[in-house]
Amino acid sequence: MTETLDTTKTPDTAETPETTAPQPKTLSKTVGGRTITMTPEQAEAFGRELDALKESVIADLGERDATYIRRMIKAQRGLEIGGRALLFGGIIPPFWLAGTAMLGLSKIIDNMEIGHNVMHGQYDWMGDPAISSRGFEWDTACPAEQWRHSHNYMHHTYTNIVGMDRDVGYGILRMSADQKWKPYFLGNPLWAFLLMVLFQYGVALHELESEKIASREITLRDKREILDGIWRKTKQQTLKDYVAFPLLAGPFAPWVLAGNMTANLMRNVWAYMIIFCGHFPEDVQEFSIEETKAETRGQWYFRQVLGSANLTGGKLFHILSGNLSFQIEHHLFPDIPAFRHAEIAPKVRDICERYGVPYNTGPLPRQFATVVRKIVKLAMPWN
């Protein structure tokens, strides 16, 4: 049995969980000790305002957006070339440090600001095959085709729905009290640390649904096509970073190998922190399948806001986060060029405030501290 990925659906067109209720219902969530309620009528108005904001941005897309992404690609390539060149002289410590830092930054920009955003279709309107969501491949172990399904479709359609969104725990961690506790989760902090340092491989294995294999719901044979894709991409990345470039360096091979490993570690830790701080800080909400039955577009928006958190920082910080520091705006409008999120964030926040919807934002250290606290807390059976 093989599995064919359907990457044609987006949150705008994807099917929502099977409905049993003929009419939408009032939604209520308790956030920070306060109950947030949204009636179907309020959700409809909420959705109309956010739809209008999205349409205004789409109508304004043009040369400014094209110039931005092309500059990011040029900067990323310059950092990679310069970093790899400096690593060839890595026996001199300043060269090694500079080369490693430049290569790490190039991998972060490639994954966060270019790859992730391009594969969301944010620049498909340009008609440039080099940055087409369908054809783009990034510098990480996860095959782009599998990412487009597990992330663009599954995660962005079923955001924070326990049992539907596999980003809730990545099949490895307990990140919600609604996930049934088992002794394995006593290792939650350790599994989280390992996921952080090996993040590109954790993401690569995401589509494998390893927890279903462990529970014998499916077998490895059922995932043969997925496994083949993971193996091809992982082998390609391993040969490039850990064999080809070190060999090209000749006697400097050990320094190049160490630099490449460190650059990948930089990217893994940074991506993990940004992504987890966008999804799991204190007061970010999870949802049940029952809560999201007969969900309207406005209620989908409501879930995206409550299921996300932003990070505060400067322009460079936002670029290095792939503008996922505006996770709320990204979850609302995943196909809008991400650098536009800084511009529309005040408008989104204003809409949320007028409808009484909490807008979760804060600095990286504070948000990450609450993530770590949640990981440790949910390791215990009484939580």
Question: What does this 3D model show about the protein?
Answer:
Residues 1-26 have a biased composition (Low complexity). The protein has helices spanning 40-60, 63-87, 93-119, 144-157, 188-197, 199-204, 210-214, 224-248, 253-279, 297-306, 315-320, 327-332, 341-354, 364-377; strands at 27-31, 34-38, 310-312, 361-363. By secondary structure, it is mainly alpha-helical. It has one domain (27-377). It has a two-stranded antiparallel sheet with strand order 1-2. α9 packs across α14. The longest helix is centred in the N-terminal third of the chain and has 27 residues, at 93-119. The radius of gyration is 21 Å and the shape is globular. The two termini are 39 Å apart. Residues 1-21 have low confidence and may be disordered.
Descriptive labels:
single chain; oxidoreductase activity, acting on paired donors, with oxidation of a pair of donors resulting in the reduction of molecular oxygen to two molecules of water; globular; disordered N terminus; two-stranded parallel sheet; 383 residues
